[in-house]
Amino acid sequence: MPEFRTLAEEKGLEEQRADLLNEMNGIVKGAKAETRTLTDEEETRFEAIKSEIKKIDKTLAAIEEERALNNKEQRNKETAKEKEERTFEAFIRGQVSETRSGEQNVTIGNNGAIIPVTIANRIIKEVKDISPILSRATLYSVKGTLKIPVWSKANTTHDITVGYQEEFTELTADAGKFTSVDLSGYLAGALSLIGKSVITNSQVDVVSFVVSEMAQKIAAFLEGELLNGSGSSAAQGITATSNIKKVAATDAIKADELIDLQAQVKQVYQQNACWIMNSSTFTAIKKLKDNNNRYLLQDDITGEFPYRLLGKPVFLSDNMATMTNDAKVIVYGDLKALSVNFRENIEIQILKEKYATQHAIGVVSWFEFDSKVTDNQKVAVLEMAS
């Protein structure tokens, strides 16, 4: 059975109804003008029009009823969100004395209060907005160990081969193999202190303030880990890719080296590719020119990004290394090359007593994540000379 949901479809039904009414009026007017009864054909068509109009009226009524139910459900969702935010803000301000039925959304524990899920989800959304590498990476949310299959050659000589063959000659059987990249979870935490003088100020939106503070802390940590990692016993950053372009100097980059770096990413992965670099590296590249004395770094006239380098958007990050010996200073490619297992149920707590001597409260977050490069063809890294 078809569903009539959009305004355009609804308008179409109303127009159909109007056309049918005009046709019905035309049949009646014709008979009146000629002072006669309806013909058998006109009578049959008149009854058919009545039936069609009745069906349209039922459909329009169903659309209106569905809209009313959806609006009611949306209002209920907004009301629940408002209740959680109101209760949470009251708890931070120390105003919680009695919770009405259905409003126990802040769970009191031994170490503080657990922030409602709606607040935690806002914090995660803020993190994605702040950190492009997290929003552009391949994201998973798996409780256990996640095994991502990767296809590769069995060894340097064994792979599936295609070539010309002669009749009655046996084909040589050969094959590649599947390996896997394992993503588990490493525990991480973030702590933000908020002064009580800020909290007691009625002009401050406490919920937005807490969300913003936690988002900045988590974003700074996550972006650094997803770019650089912290060794074998922690998450691996995208700069750990095996697709490396080593440049000739320890403190300078040539235009040709940037072109070579871009070429190390296969054409099929170029569509969503971008650059990530430190602001000091960006300043150096900003001065580079091509053979026609045109700057390589161009303003983005589309307005989507401030700058484009060799046709691709540029993102800046203080977490990227500066131009020194052996430093990995530029990431280029499709950031989906990095897979991130970012587990749900982030625990965020309010610590009211621990920092009372500092006239502050603490907002602490615990979460587990892991990351690894799962497709080295999608990304390339520029490394300075030794």
Automatic annotation (TrEMBL):
Residues 112-383 form the Phage capsid-like C-terminal domain. Its main location: virion. Pfam families: Phage_capsid. Residues 46-83 form a coiled coil. InterPro entries: Phage_capsid, Phage_capsid-like_C. It is found in: Virion. Keywords: Coiled coil. This is Phage major capsid protein. It comes from Clostridium hominis. The lineage of its organism: Bacteria, Bacillati, Bacillota, Clostridia, Eubacteriales.
